[in-house]
Design brief:
By secondary structure, this protein is mainly α. Helices cover 70% and strands 5% of the residues. The strands form 2 sheets. It has a 5-stranded antiparallel beta sheet.
C-alpha cells in the first residue's frame, strides 16, 4: 500500500494540483482511522497547498469540525480548511487523533518535505525520520526512505538529508535476513556516533552468525565508541566554556567594584537579580504591547537591565558605601544588609515564587554536531555575549576618560584629587558601571535558568572566587580564572559528580592562594 501511494504522490507532485474538496477534508477529520489515513493519502497525492496545510494542522492538533465544516484553529484565529476564509471557532469540536493516525501523518509530512524544494525542511524531515527509525522501527518507514532515495527522486535531496536517510535505512537493514544488507548496514552505521546506534550494533553482534558481518559489526562498534568519546570530550569543553562565560559575566562587575575600588559588595548577586527581573518585565511589556516583535525583547532588555542595576548601584554608593571606603569589613556588613533589603523588595513586588522568562525563537533549540552532541543556541549566544561585554569593559577601562579617572583614583586618590579629578563622582560612576554589568549578567542568566529572589545567591561566592583567583584589579586575570574554573569544574564533575567537583575546585583555590596570594596576575611596580 505504501509503495503504491508514494508512486501516486510523486506523480502528483510533478503534475497539476487538485483542489481540496469539503468531502475529503471531512473524511480526513472524522471516521474510522483506516478511512482517515486513506483520505490523507488522497490529499497528499493531490498536491494542493490547502491539503498540505490541513495535514500539517492535523500534526499540530489544530483541526476542529463544526457540522460538515473543517476548520484550522490557531489560538483565537480560525479559517475554513477548504476555502481559506476567516471563520470563528464557536461551536467547533476538536478532532480525535490516535497514535496510529499520528504516526501516519508524521510519515506523510516527512515524505512531502523530502520531495519538496526547501532544504531546511528536507534536513529536518530526514532527522525526524532517522530518530523515528532508531527508536521505533517500522516497515512502513522503509517505503518512505526507499522512495526518497530512488534514482528518480534522489536529485531532489540535499546531500546532508541523503546521508541521514541512508543511515536510517541502514538501521532498518540491520535486522534483515540478507547478510549483504546487514553488512552494508554495519558499514553505514559505524559513521553514526550515537548511543542508541551502539546499542543496536551490540545487540546484533550478539546474535550475528555470519563471520564477515561480525567483523564489520565489531569495526563499526569501535568507530562508534571513538566518536562517542570525542563527543563527550567536546561536550565537556563546551559546557565548561559555557559555565566559564557565565562566571565571567557575573564576575566582571565585581572586578570593578571589588578589584578596582576595594569594596566587598555582598549585594552584587542582587544586582544580577535586578537585571534578570528587568528582563522579565520587558518580556511582559513586549508580550502585551508588541507581540509581533516578541523575539527581540532580549535586545531591548539589555539597556533596561543595565540602567536599572546601574541606578540601584549608584544609589547604594551615594547613600551608604561612600562613607565606608577603606573599611572593607564595614562594606561587607553594609552591603550584606542591602542585599537582604533588595531580596525582600523583589519578593514584595513580584512574589516569592520564580517567574518564567522565555527564550526567543532564535535562542531556542540547538545545533547538532558530532552525531551525539547538541549545542544549545542560548548557551552559544551567551558565550558570544560574554565576549562582547568583556571587550566593551576592556575598552572602557583602557580607552575612555572614565576609565582613566577610575585607574587614577584607584592607584592614588590624593594625587588624583590634586589634579582636579572629582573623586566622589568617579566613585559613583565606577560603582554604577560595575553594577550595570551585573545587570547584563542577569539578562544572560534569565535565559538559562529560573528567575527568583534568590537568583544572585548562587553566583556571589563564585564571583568572588574568580576575582580573587585572577588577581585583584586584573581584568585579564578575571578572564583566565573564570574560564579555568568553568572548565575544571565540568571536567571533574564528569568524573566525580557535581558535589565533589565543587569541593575539588574550592580546595584548588585555597591551595593556589596559599602559594600565590596575589592571584594569577599580580599588580606590579607602583600599582602594588
Amino acid at each position: 500500500m505504501w509503495g503504491a501511494w508514494w508512486l501516486c504522490l510523486v506523480l502528483a507532485w510533478t503534475g497539476a494540483a487538485h483542489a481540496l474538496s469539503p468531502e475529503d477534508a471531512l473524511a480526513f477529520a472524522e471516521g474510522d482511522t483506516a478511512d482517515r489515513i486513506a483520505a490523507m493519502e488522497r490529499l497528499a497525492a493531490s498536491g494542493d497547498p490547502r491539503a498540505e496545510a490541513l495535514i500539517r494542522a492535523m500534526a499540530r492538533e489544530a483541526v476542529k469540525v463544526r457540522g460538515e465544516q473543517v476548520l484550522i484553529v490557531e489560538g483565537d484565529a480560525a479559517i475554513d480548511a477548504v476555502t481559506g476564509a476567516a471563520e470563528t471557532a464557536d461551536g467547533a469540536a476538536s478532532v480525535m487523533i490516535n497514535n496510529r493516525l499520528r504516526g501516519a501523518v508524521q510519515r506523510t509530512l516527512a515524505g512531502m518535505d523530502l520531495l519538496g524544494d526547501d532544504v531546511r525542511r528536507q534536513r529536518e524531515a530526514a532527522l525526524r525520520l532517522r530518530a523515528s527509525v532508531f527508536n521505533q522501527p517500522d516497515e512502513s518507514q522503509l517505503a518512505v526512505i526507499e522512495n526518497a532515495l530512488a534514482p528518480e527522486n534522489a536529485h531532489r535531496l540535499d546531500d546532508r538529508a541523503r546521508r541521514t536517510l541512508e543511515q536510517a535505512r541502514a538501521a532498518l537493514w540491520l535486522g534483515s535476513g540478507d547478510a549483504a544488507l546487514r553488512l552494508a548496514a554495519a558499514q553505514a552505521l559505524g559513521e553514526v556516533g550515537q548511543t542508541i546506534v551502539r546499542s543496536k550494533l551490540a545487540r546484533q553482534l550478539e546474535v550475528e552468525t555470519e563471520p564477515t558481518v561480525r567483523v564489520a559489526l565489531s569495526q563499526a562498534l569501535s568507530r562508534v565508541d571513538a566518536a562517542l568519546v570525542r563527543s563527550q570530550v567536546a561536550g565537556q569543553l563546551f559546557t565548561g566554556l559555557s559555565l566559564g562565560s557565565i562566571l565571567l559575566l557575573a564576575a566582571l562587575g565585581l572586578a570593578i567594584t571589588y578589584g578596582l575600588m576595594g569594596v566587598i559588595n555582598m549585594a552584587h548577586g542582587e544586582l544580577i537579580m535586578i537585571g534578570a527581573y528587568a528582563t522579565y518585565v520587558v518580556q511582559g511589556l513586549f508580550r502585551q504591547y508588541l507581540p509581533g516583535a516578541f523575539d527581540w525583547y532580549v535586545l531591548a532588555a539589555l539597556p533596561v537591565a543595565f540602567l536599572m542595576s546601574a541606578l540601584v548601584g549608584a544609589v547604594m554608593e551615594r547613600g551608604v558605601i561612600r562613607w565606608l571606603y577603606g573599611r572593607p569589613l564595614e562594606t561587607l556588613l553594609a552591603t550584606w544588609g542591602l542585599s537582604l533589603i533588595l531580596m525582600q523588595g523583589v519578593r514584595s513586588l513580584f512574589g516569592a515564587q520564580n517567574v518564567a522568562v522565555e527564550n526567543p525563537s532564535w535562542m531556542s533549540g540547538g545545533v547538532v554536531v558530532m552525531g551525539n552532541l547538541t549545542l544549545p543556541w542560548n548557551r552559544i549566544v551567551i558565550i558570544g555575549f560574554a565576549v562582547a561585554v568583556l571587550v566593551a569593559v576592556a575598552l572602557i577601562i583602557s580607552r575612555t576618560r572614565l576609565g582613566l579617572f577610575v585607574r587614577g583614583v584607584t592607584q592614588n586618590r590624593p594625587i588624583a584629587a590634586c589634579m582636579g579629578v572629582n573623586t566622589a563622582r568617579v566613585d559613583t560612576y565606577a560603582f554604577a558601571l560595575g553594577s550595570g554589568i551585573a545587570g547584563l549578567a542577569g539578562v544572560a542568566l534569565s535565559q538559562i535558568g529560573n528567575v527568583g529572589p534568590d537568583l544572585g545567591q548562587g553566583y556571589i561566592i563564585d564571583s568572588f572566587m574568580v576575582v580573587v583567583l585572577g588577581g585583584v584589579g586584573q581584568l585579564a586575570g578575571t578572564v583566565y580564572a573564570a574560564l579555568g574554573l568553568g572548565l575544571l569544574n565540568k571536567f571533574i564533575e564528569g568524573w566525580a559528580g557535581a558535589v565533589l567537583a565543587k569541593i575539588a575546585v574550592l580546595v584548588f583555590i585555597i591551595v593556589f592562594i596559599q602559594k600565590r596570594p596575589q592571584g594569577i596576575f599580580a599588580l606590579k611596580g607602583r600599582q602594588a
